[in-house]
Amino acid sequence: MAACAVSVALLPALAGSPAAHAATPSGIHPGVAVTFGGITCKAGAIMRQGARLYVAIPASCAGIQPGVLQDGCAAAETPIGIPVHIAGARHHGTLVYNSFTEMQLHGVTDKTMCDYNDLALVRINRRDASRVSGAIPGSKAPQQVTAARPTSGTAMTVNRAPATAGATHHHGWEHDFTTLAALGPADVGAPVVFANQLVGMLTVLPSGLVAKSPAETYSLAKAMWQMHKVAGFRHVVLLRAGQRG
User: Fold this and answer.
1) Residue 123 contacts residue 232 (beta carbons within 8 Å)
2) Distance CA 7, CA 99 (A)
3) Which pLDDT tens digit goes with each residue over 122-161?
4) Which residues constitute the domain of residue 98?
5) CA distance linking residue 236 with residue 220, whole number of Å
6) What's the first-to-final CA gap in the chain, in angstroms?
7) φ and ψ at 187, to 5 degrees?
8) What is the pLDDT of residue 20?
9) In this structure, is residue 6 part of a structural domain?
10) Does residue 13 sit within a domain?
């Protein structure tokens, strides 16, 4: 994990952040818990393609150790079709897209792609469509997925808690950020936002409870561009704040 110019010590609890006190509405929205294979992470975004609705999570959520850098071209694959529990849903979702699986099927060896193309989609059961909202609770975000590189020092949020952008690496694939919020494995996937735009999802955790190393988010715009090359997912777009399923 690359060094970051901005360092903020991580507190052992989230008690001081807005996310700790804000009431979380019911239903399916960015930030809800997503559980499969005994692992829980958070929904980074809601996406749609026609009438189909999806929860976006990092593909690495299903890895042996969520929250650390994983080689998607060599990691154990999570079977497509596995049932997924989505908090706020009344029916199980289904894992339908995994960037790790796609790269392994096509023999990708480019290290940048293998490390940072990290996106999976869980299809939401159509019977839960009326329960879906594109908004991160308590905000007007996200309005779009951005391919912009946040300038170091830019104010951001992760899981509705304040964060600060650091350096960008690997041709815009990976962005560092720091935060006073305590982040654990169950927070992997949480939406990372600046100016109401979705940069990506929390993918790599800082090392240690009190750390100078930053957390990392990977470019969701780049991962979606790769996903759009796959038949069946070429027209998947963000369900924006203000839109419902």
Assistant:
1) no
2) 31
3) 999 999 999 999 999 999 999 999 999 999 999 999 989 9
4) 33-132+223-238
5) 13
6) 37
7) -90, -10
8) 39
9) no
10) no
